[in-house]
Amino acid sequence: MGYQFNKKAVALPGRFELYILFAEVADSQDIDKQVAHVVFMSVSYLFNSQTERNSMTTVALVTGASRGIGRATALLLAQQGYAVGVNYLQDEAAAQQVVAQICEQGGEAQALQANIASEADVVAMFAELDATLGPIGALVNNAGILFQQASIEQLTAERINKVLATNVTGYFLCCREAVKRMSLRSGGQGGAIVNVSSAAARLGAPGEYVDYAASKGAVDTLTTGLAQEVAAQGIRVNGVRPGFIYTEMHACGGEPGRVDRVKTVLPMQRGGQPEEVAQIITWLLSDAASYVTGSFIDAAGGR
């Protein structure tokens, strides 16, 4: 009795497809039970090995990940072995470029469109993350907005509310959905959250962005309170306060060259790079920071 081996594709649960060798008895309608058992055991071993590897991969969501600090953080997390949800608001092309770069380097990523100021969008984004990459283990609340530099006399309720909706409510909503999934009480495995605040929360941004600064002050309070609330659920919550960083956000405020204008007042006499902030964020998410929660790290060149 001879055996003929044919390669066939088998769709496995999740996102995996495995090619295996099926043994068929030549010139017979029956498959030898022993050969079939070997094939089954091989498939089981390969599937279980892949499942184990996948279960060891932490899923991270980075909001506002199509540019600046968010982009740098998403790329660095992928290099460190995370599967990364790349959230964006409008620039799908930029988000897909981040995803493509991660995938080209052997990582796993998914672009996720959502306006974090919208509760419905946030709920849908987390559901999509669940379905594509799996349960979240790390959240980077980074998406934020600011408007043209203005004094208090020039601020309108519409502008103030827009800033607070994204920079404060958006952070709350993302934290809520992450905690639902991470919490030990809910059957989760714990996790870590990093809220990207700003040195403006300490300095106030007078005459320029007091509304933005106030929103970041609220982020700091959220970080402090939430860290205490969820510590027993295996979740750590920390904050990072960047200073003058070379990102596109300054153009939104009407002054693309702002960092170069003000860098001479900094003790380090230079602006920061997004990658420098990303290093801090990824450290806070890592097991190296396992006893750190409710803390803040300033990345502001000494200011």
Concise synopsis of the structure shown:
With 303 residues, the chain is of the alpha/beta class.
Notes on the structure:
- Belongs to the short-chain dehydrogenases/reductases (SDR) family.
- It comes from Serratia fonticola.
- With 303 residues, the protein is of the alpha/beta class.
- The chain has 2 domains: 3-53, no CATH class; 57-299, Rossmann fold (3-Layer(aba) Sandwich).
- 44% of the residues lie in helices and 19% in strands.
- Strands 5-4-3-6-7-8-9 form a 7-stranded parallel β-sheet, with helices on both faces.
- The longest helix is centred in the middle third of the chain and has 26 residues, at 157-182.
SSE arrangement:
Blueprint: E1 3-11, E2 17-25, H1 33-55, E3 59-62, H2 68-79, E4 83-88, H3 92-104, E5 108-113, H4 119-132, E6 136-141, H5 157-182, E7 191-196, H6 200-203, H7 210-230, E8 235-242, H8 249-252, H9 258-262, H10 274-285, E9 296-299
Parallel strand pairs: 3-4, 3-6, 4-5, 6-7, 7-8, 8-9
Antiparallel strand pairs: 1-2
Helix pairs in contact: 2-3, 2-10, 4-5, 5-7
Pfam families: adh_short_C2
Organism: Serratia fonticola
Domain Ketoreductase: 58-245
CATH homology-level superfamily of the largest domain: NAD(P)-binding Rossmann-like Domain
Helix content range of the residues, please? 40-55%
Question: Can you tell me the overall shape?
Answer: globular
CATH C-level class of the largest domain: Alpha Beta
What sequence of helices (H) and strands (E) makes up the elements? Answer: EEHEHEHEHEHEHHEHHHE
Query: What does the oligomeric state look like here?
Result: single chain
The tally of structural domains comes to: 2
Major β-sheet strand ordering:
5-4-3-6-7-8-9
Radius of gyration: 24 Å
Cα separation of the termini:
81 Å
Low-pLDDT windows of residues: 1-54
How confident overall, as mean pLDDT?
86
Structural class: alpha/beta
| Major sheet details | 7 strands, parallel
Can you tell me the CATH topology of the largest domain?
A: Rossmann fold
